[in-house]
Amino acid sequence: MKPCSLGVAYLFSFITLAVAGSYDYKDALQKSLLFYEAQRSGKLPADQKVTWRHDSALNDKGENGEDLTGGYFDAGDFVKFGFPMAYTTTVLSWGLLDHHKGYETAGSVEECLKAIKWATDYFIKCHVSEYEYYGQVGSGTVDHAYWGRPEDMTMARPAYKITASKPGSDLAAETAAALAAASLVFRSSNATYANILLQHAKQLYDFGYKYRGIFSNSITDSQCCYTSTHYEDELVWGAAWLYRATNDKTYLTYVDALWDSFKNMYGFDWDQKFGGAVVLLAKLTGDSKYSTAITNYCNYVFQQGSRTSKGLIFIYDWGPLRYALNIAYVCLQAADLGINTASYRAEAKKQMDYALGDAGRSYVIGFGNNPPTHAHHRAASCPDKPAVCNWDTYHGSQPNAHVLYGGLVGGPNKSDIFVDDRTDWRHSEVGCDYNACFQSMLAHFVELGY
Ligand SMILES: *[C@@H]1O[C@H](CO)[C@@H](O)[C@H](O)[C@H]1NC(C)=O
Ligand SMILES: *[C@@H]1O[C@H](CO)[C@@H](O)[C@H](O)[C@H]1NC(C)=O
After folding, report:
1. Which of 67, 210, 380, 440 lies 20 to 30 angstroms, CA to CA, from 399?
2. Topology of domain 25-448, per CATH?
3. How far is the CA of 410 from the centre of ligand 2 (A)?
């Protein structure tokens, strides 16, 4: 690991001393929304606040020339991976639906609607016919061989789709979940848009249910980064969201049909939907089989799961903070249903406060005490033009040229150690999916008055 030379003046300009366990969740929420702005691909709107970003990837097209501009760059790279993007959108919509008051208090309702719509407008474009959905634009290997600004990209950006003969039930059902959840979010402000979202959600769900397969076997380029392990969990999760959006009990019969292959799963992340699906079904149906499942899961992770010595739930060494916060968020949802409310809320707050500073530093860029300044993020690392930006920029010890406000980095290793090093992407990268439960949980904390 190379040592990092932090620009001292630069560093101190972002320090706000925080008392352990007492953080400005509202500020973190507002910054997280800025992070999503910084991830925008396509033509940027006039009200874009992250002005070091510019229009990019304006030639993203499907095989027949369909316009596939828009959506989000996945992480520190410029691939548009539909699977984690859909998961992100479902979770952001979930947070806005269930913690609307938190967003109101933070003055961030409009910004969150924009963050969701930036993805849902893109998903609609990608759904080019009933059984054709573009699940990725840009190739992992080709994209990752480039270090520079998104505005300057010249490499080929192939588009990959799922079809009836190359299915992706997980991708289709997660996107259905996102669109169904977003339809609920937009119902009161624009019923026309909500109906369009719901229409696509239903069609995509039927596509996924009818033509079974794992998307990463069909879109093999995604295997660099997002190999999916099952599709039953997305089919359950998607059905739960469609049930919430439609009240159509047919979707619950799908859940019943899938239950045996789903009930012994675990986790909640871009790949695993178990925790989110059971807690949502517990809320929607009141059926004790779902509340038992989420209780057992939360109790297991909170009481027996692996942790660092400073208390972070530690599932995996690639982006550990998001796994901890994802679990904390679904258990916080369980707490809202009256399941071990005080202890689950306390644990969720502990996990969040670890990320915000309790372990001795902030893991959120531009927030709190000693935040990361060397995140693995191509766009933020590049100084404004005409400066050159390339692999030398990547390998340099200088801090990123732009502050990627609100981006949650991967986090520490199992020894609670974090090296603020751009080349250590497992720990220093950011990702759309990393910020999703993080942001929804912040909205919940603001709502709870924490
Ligand atoms: C509502 O959504 C529709 C469909 O996207 C759009 O054409 C229309 O402009 C929207 N209306 C408002 C008031 O934003
Ligand atoms: C954590 O990182 C430090 C510094 O790179 C290293 O010495 C230590 O072995 C790592 N711990 C684990 C569990 O990987």
Report:
1. 440
2. Glycosyltransferase (1.50.10)
3. 15
